[in-house]
Amino acid sequence: MSSSADRPTVEGKFYHIMVAPGEVSRYVLLPGDPARSDLIAKTWDEARLIAKHREFTTYTGKYKGVPISVTSTGIGGPSTAIAVEELLRAGADTFIRVGTTGAIQPEIPVGDIVITVAAVRLDGTSKQYIIPEYPAHAHYEVINALVEAAESLGYNYWLGVTASTDSFYLGQGRPGYKNYTQSWSQNLYEDLRRAGVLNFEMESSTIFTLSSIYGARAGTVCAVIANKITNEFMPGSGIDKAIRVANEAVKILYEWDEKKKLYKKKYFYPSLITK
Ligand code: URA
Fold it and tell me: Which of 54, 165, 191, 251 is packed most tightly, with the most Cβ within 10 A?
């Protein structure tokens, strides 16, 4: 693989994630935090560290016999887009973000999980790819696999629209340093809450927009660690559940993909399971 300013590689590895073509499974989990890549890899039957470079920590292994990878994205759109771009070149085509989130609906308790069907594009990165009217939607197969996984594990989950922001503080209605704020920031979460948006996080809109443009599949499951309405914050709560749901969803997608192959179908549909 040749390197150039347009296609930067180092010794055959993609410049930022330091992964070579073929070193990842088609199914890649995407936490934000590099430490969560380590945590996720420990839940598999086998795992091999591929690279730790900047915010990107990648492992490849097997979960219940299914080839699986994880790459951390860092926080926010720019580094997440880099991870998605380079993972696609490395051989991935299915992404599941395994993140943390702040709920903006009063009935969503900290410690539950949210499965995202679409993301409000309050990020900047996806706008460098396509006009803002283009939808940031999760892929229906990934959404269904995440729901199936959450049901089979008996977890309480919430399904709906997420808002992805480029700022954790003012962008999510929190005061900045010295209580700095803006009128739009104070109104933002109330406006979104009234429209039924479930939660805030910072990467899904980028992952969904790029995946949709490039013909890849993507979904998100997040652990609720904060609730803006009840003003709770409990870091770490629900993360074990989000990881289990994401791992199981990969196994389910693998089984559905095998069925699609067997019956020469491009798209999965429910009666394929019993065929
Ligand atoms: N991640 C976010 O982006 N917001 C929160 O409130 C919690 C996690």
Answer: 165
Instruction: Note if the pTM is more than 0.85.
Output: yes
Q: Which two tokens stand for residue 225?
A: 């660690």
The more confident residue out of 6 and 37 is 37
Nearest ligand 1 atom, CA 225: 7
- Would you tell me how many other CB atoms lie within 10 Å of the CB of residue 195? 10
Is pLDDT above 90 for 275? no
Residue among 104, 116, 168, 170 to mutate when testing ligand 1 (max atoms within 8 A of CB): 168
For 135-209, strand residue ranges (E) read 157-165, 199-201
* DSSP 3-state of 87: helix
CA of 270 relative to ligand 1 center, distance in Å? 34
Determine which residue's CA is closest to atom 5 belonging to ligand 1: 102
Q: What is the pLDDT of residue 244?
A: 98
> CB atoms < 10 A from the CB of 268, how many?
17
pLDDT confidence bin for 2, thresholds 50/70/90:
confident
The mean pLDDT value for 41-47 works out to 98
Complete domains list, the chain, with CATH: 9-272 (3.40.50.1580)
Please compute the mean of the pLDDT values over residues 96-123 and round it to a whole number.
Answer: 98
- DSSP, collapsed to helix, strand or coil, labels residue 194 as helix
CA of 273 to the centre of ligand 1 (A): 36
- Mutate which of 120, 200, 224, 239 to test ligand 1's pocket (most atoms within 8 Å of Cβ)? 200
Say whether pLDDT at 38 is over 90: yes
> Probe ligand 1: pick from 75, 201, 222, max atoms within 8 Å of CB?
201
